[in-house]
TrEMBL record:
Residues 163-223 form the Cytochrome C Planctomycete-type domain. Signal peptide: none annotated. It comes from the Bacteria. It comes from Croceivirga radicis. GO terms for molecular function: electron transfer activity; heme binding. The chain crosses the membrane at residues 6-27, 39-61, 76-95, 102-122. This is Uncharacterized protein.
Length: 679
């Protein structure tokens, strides 16, 4: 056995023993009791093990593999500490007061020398930055594995975690450094790492990794953290591809063994993903409290706690609305204030919302001065200022939002100076085609406005657009023929359940997307309702009353206005005050596949006569849900021959399990219902 190898064992003994002497001196000073003989014995023991440590350390240092300067610092500090311990032993025998004062001072100096000796020793073993740097293993996370640099992003992290502690500039075992490309290629005392050798593995590096654990040449040594099977396969693949230091994964020949490993490394590193990872889910009761103020809060998905806040075109917004949201501000990544009374005076209320990624201020009265008050939003990428009176914007105003890339503006509203300033800052102006004419690239959809969506007699409809000189067209969906569109000039009325479509068009600008809104006429009042199947406890709203309160839910399925059913069908009974003649039933439902919410796949309507007899009126099978990710409020109207009944029983079919095209195939599907209207 090489006695030099005992140094790591022996070196820790004088540390603990000397600290014991120091503590005992403090204890006896407090107790006013001298423990001279005990302390002399402890100091003598410290000196003995210090000398052994110096001797074994001297031989270990001569074996090489350590930085000379660090080795000298450690060695001479250790010698200085040992001399200090010997001097303390001699002074402790003396009884004169002057010697006792020198002893006390030297005792403190001994602690300092001991600490420095240990610190320099730790630097030699673990590296200079070991004491004040976090050395916990860093998980490898890559946004796009195909584009990842093989060495820098895959190989190097493995070497740093499992190999560099013994092969760094402070400690160079076997003369091998693994901290840079040049050092890796230079190899060590045993030769070049990638040299061909005899045996099953073709190079020295892989040969050492595959040796039995008991073999002295196995790397990493026994007792050190070992490489996983996946990491060894990764290194083998890299070396077989000529250990390329500048290649990406897609540049190299694929290895099927690595596919599961690479898949485990790939991680969404977008701001949205990282914010979601650090956010907590907001309790349902908090969300319900806020929605009562007319603010719609929608989770990005069922398993994502981040929120979109929609102020639903309110015209009475005050700071109290934002105060209500402040406790959950870190979860809010999008705020929609379009078509509200939001203005320059309210813009400071956005200060707590530092995680905003998207902010919609379109069609508000916010001006240039208001935008100047919008301070530092580090994640903001999209800002909608379309339809505002803003004329001047520059990179100084918006440059503080470091990730802002898209600003939506009204065509021809900004000065050329503003356009140039923002373009130079790499901010894309949507609504403008930045060329010599600065023409608008696309016209936005008009907005269909009405006081309510469920009405009794008739309903007044208006259509708004922000584009001057644009022609707006509207039409009512006709089941028997194509929808006929007319030029919109004045508000109009509807008197039955209908879907209104609208679009705008301007010469040279193209045609907008269609705007769509469903309006439901409630001709026959429901006296009472009964649910035969209980909704999910989280989505019970006001139970059966929810279905005939005349209020449609929003696209936010947690707004407290939807009845949700997980995996099971809906079944309910609705009674009138007396016999009524009915010829149609309309059902409002939600589709949000990314939140496991799907359109129903079937309906069954059963009439109930005055004496309680039942008769099937209408049955419809709609088939499977087709692939989509859109969040939509939908309306289905079932028509049938007129019949007099006292009430109806309605069954709505849930598909039960998520389809194969869904991100969670086979998971439980939901249906969400909010209004049942009869005519």
């Amino acid at each position: 056995m090489n006695l030099a190898n005992l140094h790591p064992l022996l070196v820790h003994l004088p540390i603990g023993i000397f600290i014991l002497a120091f503590l005992l001196e403090l204890w006896q000073w407090i107790r006013k009791k001298d423990e001279k003989e005990t302390i002399l014995f402890i100091l003598a023991t410290t000196i003995f093990f210090s000398l052994l440590s110096i001797a074994t350390g001297w031989f270990l240092g001569d074996n090489g593999g350590y930085d000379v300067d660090m080795l000298n610092n450690h060695k001479w500090m250790g010698i200085a500490f040992t001399l200090c311990a010997i001097t303390l032993f001699v002074l402790r025998y003396c009884t004169k007061a002057i010697y006792r004062k020198i002893y006390n001072l030297l005792l403190v100096i001994g602690i300092v020398l001991l600490s420095l000796t240990g610190h320099f020793g730790g630097n030699m073993t673990h590296g200079e930055d070991f004491l004040f740097t976090d050395h916990s293993p860093k998980a490898i996370a890559i946004a796009n594995i195909e584009k990842a640099q093989v060495y820098a992003e895959l190989v190097q992290p493995v070497l740093e975690a499992k190999c560099v502690s013994c092969h760094n500039t402070s400690k160079t075992k076997g003369g091998l450094l693994l901290t840079s490309k040049a050092e890796i290629l230079a190899g060590g005392e045993s030769g070049l790492l990638f040299d061909t050798i005899s045996g099953h593995y073709t190079n020295l590096f892989m040969h050492r990794l595959h040796l039995p654990m008991e073999d002295d040449e196995h790397m990493p040594p026994k007792g050190k953290q070992q490489l996983s099977a996946e990491e060894i396969t990764l290194l083998d693949w890299w070396i077989k591809n000529e250990n390329c230091f500048d290649c990406t994964v897609e540049d190299l020949e694929k290895d099927s063994r690595l596919e599961p490993y690479f898949a485990s490394l790939e991680e969404d590193q977008s701001d949205l993903s990282q914010l979601a990872k650090n956010a907590n889910f907001i309790p349902r009761e908090d969300l319900e409290r806020i929605t009562k103020m007319g603010i719609s809060l929608q989770q990005l998905s069922e398993d994502n706690p981040l929120l979109i806040a929609n102020f639903n075109r309110q015209k009475n917004i005050t700071t109290s609305h934002f105060d209500a949201l402040e406790n959950i501000a870190s979860n809010v990544v999008e705020i929609n204030l379009s078509y509200t009374n939001f203005n320059d005076d309210l813009i400071t209320a956005l200060k707590p919302y530092n995680n905003l990624i998207k902010l919609q201020l379109n069609n508000t009265t916010v001006t240039d001065k208001g935008i100047e008050k919008l301070k530092n939003k580090p994640y903001l990428t999209s800002l909608n200022l379309f339809g505002t009176p803003i004329k001047k914007l520059n990179s100084e105003q918006l440059g503080q939002h470091k990730k802002l890339t898209h600003v939506y503006v009204t065509p021809q509203s900004l000065t050329q100076e503003s356009i140039t300033s923002l373009s130079n800052a790499n901010i894309i102006l949507q609504g403008l085609d930045i060329n010599e004419k600065f023409k608008a690239s696309k016209i936005t959809s008009p907005v269909i406005v009405a006081n309510q969506e469920v009405f009794k007699d008739s309903l007044r409809i208006t259509i708004e657009t922000s584009f001057e000189e644009a022609t707006t067209y509207f039409g009512v969906v006709n089941k028997t023929s194509d929808t006929l569109f007319k030029v919109y000039t004045n508000p109009f009325f509807i008197s039955k359940t209908q879907t209104v479509l609208a679009f705008s068009e301007k010469e040279g600008w193209g045609k907008s997307e269609y705007a769509k809104r469903d309006f439901i006429k409630s001709g026959i009042p429901i006296k009472e309702g009964k649910l035969h199947a209980k909704p999910h406890e989280k989505y019970a709203a006001q139970h059966e009353v929810t279905l005939f309160d005349g209020k449609r839910g929003s696209t936010n399925f947690v707004d407290g206005k939807w009845l949700g059913y997980e995996e099971q069908n809906f079944k309910g009974t609705f009674l009138f005050d007396d016999n009524k003649e009915i010829s149609s039933i309309s059902v409002s439902h939600l589709s949000a596949p990314t939140s496991w919410i799907f359109s129903p796949i079937g309906y069954k309507v059963i009439g109930i006569t005055e004496n309680g007899a039942k008769k099937t009126i209408k049955t419809i099978d709609l088939g499977k849900n087709k692939p989509n990710v859109d969040v939509q409020r939908n309306l289905i109207t079932l028509e049938f021959d007129a019949i007099k009944v006292k009430g109806i029983q309605l069954e709505i079919v849930n598909q039960g399990k998520n389809p194969e095209w869904h991100t969670d195939p086979g998971g439980n599907s939901f249906i969400f219902i909010d209004e049942v209207v009869l005519n």
